[in-house]
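#struct-queue
[09:14] JT: dropping the first one here, sequence first, then the structure tokens:
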Amino acid sequence: MSIEKNDVAMRKTLYLLFILCLPALQNLNAQSFTLEDCLHMTLEKNAQVKEAKLGEEVALQIKKQALTYFFPNVSLLGFGFQASNPMMNIDLGMLGNMALLKNGILASAVAVQPIFYGGKILYGNKLAKTGILASKLFTAMKEEEVLLQTEEYYWLLYSLYEKRNTVLSMKQVLDTLSKDVQQAYKAGLLGQNEVWKVQLQKNTLETKGVELEHGIFLATMALGRQIGLPVDSLEHIRVMFPEGLTVTNPMELYIEPASVIPLRTEYKLLQVGVHAAKLERKMETSSYLPSLGVGAVYYYENFLDKDQWNGAVMASVNVPITDWARGSFTIKQKKIEEDRARIREEDGRQQLLMQIQQAWGSYVEAYQKYELAELAVLASEENVRTSEQYFKAGTVNLTELLAARGGLQQSRDTKTDALKDYQLAKSTYLQVTGRYFIKDLPGTQQTF
């Protein structure tokens, strides 16, 4: 009797929760999201993607700044003074003294055009351009990362919803079985213990349902944050799942690992790193080469109470000599950094090959596990069917029937998880082989 009271209390609690949540559930019809919708919203509104794109803007501003060094450097100078006493006195003998420079004004404009600075300006602009390419590749890598995370949340929700459907269907079957057991108990065919066994499994399903609802709530919040929606407005999120999902043999998507390495964003970043190290070495070398610049100056001065206008052209040549001694060591350091970048590139290539092989193994494993889970469901369904027949015939007791139904629920949940793992393994394999949401990025095909 205590079990029945607990069951009634639990049903009342769930009913109140349903009534309280009904307005939010009704609002779920406001907008629906498919997997494609979630992925596109991730690219548009995800916080990490937005931050990465701001990094692109920073790199663009650095490039614009580097371009300004190609243009003349123009400066204006203004100078004036008023002395309490003349700054210069000239003794003219019988003519007396002549006071000079009590006040004065000087204004000038100077323009200097760099002609050759050892290639430093040229390499600086190339390095800035390389920075833009690196930031774009970093953004692309971040996009791939968050898209996979979005898929994880999406398929997690799928598995939770499928498990909830399984629980609901099992509840309906148990409700029917509970009525049959109650009638058999009243007729004296079954004991009170059998009634409690059914009630206990119903309570277990109720607990499982509460856990699933909580999991759905948390997963929905995580997906909402991932696609850029406020986590406190879950009423705007209704996830739509595809019907009739098919599981295909991984061999249909197999590709030779070495052939797709150039497609990987990570490998392109490693190549950019080598190119940047090479440019930095050239920039450092250019610092110790002769530099040449030309310029012009035009000025106005009035120091002797007379306006004076004048102009001049000039040229400058700077040949560093003593700097070469210590500069040679700095250049060697840059060369070592370039060698390190090349080592990282090759090591990164090997790691990417390992990652592809691992992703392929996980993909095949997920496919095989799904096939086994599908067979397990068929076997469990057949076990339940025969158990029900034998139970009605009196050759199988209630405990065995309940165990068969519990096994069916477990096998269905295992199949659901296997399908989720298969979808994620497939997406991961496509990503590591450079075929997951590939976009044409300006400059990503550039050869160095």
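[09:21] JT: and here's the second one, same format:
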Amino acid sequence: MKVAILVDGYNVTYSSPELKRLLKRSKYQAQERLISLMSSYCSLEGREGYVVFDAYKGHRSKIEEKIGPNLRFILTGTGETADSYIEKFVSQKKVYYDYIYVVTSDYSQRRTADDKKVLFLSPQNFLKEVEAHQKVLTQTYSSRPSRACPRVSDYLENEVKEKLDRIRAGLS
């Protein structure tokens, strides 16, 4: 199933205490953190992700960068909002996807894209989902022994370790 997820970057940033703190320091740090979260999320879910930030009042042309195999960063150009970019994307590309998730708190956007293939998530619900994925990653990879110099044996199942011990002892 081909699924895309479009995230209104500032809607999500302002809905997250962590991202808001980073935004106070630097908008680039907040953007980088959201992109990192999205990258992990899209990789685990097998979705194509698009993180869209407004540059509506800025004086520049649109920037679109491929961050990884399944994630793109979009900074809209002068006169274009993240909402208008997302609306245009949905109307032009919905035929290519089985579903498109749109993460936004903009109610008017929800009314303009009335389609069974377009599903809306609030930034708060999206952040809860991302947090759950982060916990899975943490549990999966932090359950391994941590050492300054890990050994291959640290990552082997007990059954395999026992077989290797028998081989070393000449009992195979």
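[09:30] RK: nice, looked through the second one.
[09:31] RK: The beta strands are 3-8, 48-53, 63-68, 71-75, 99-103, 118-121.
[09:31] JT: good to know. The mean pLDDT is 84.
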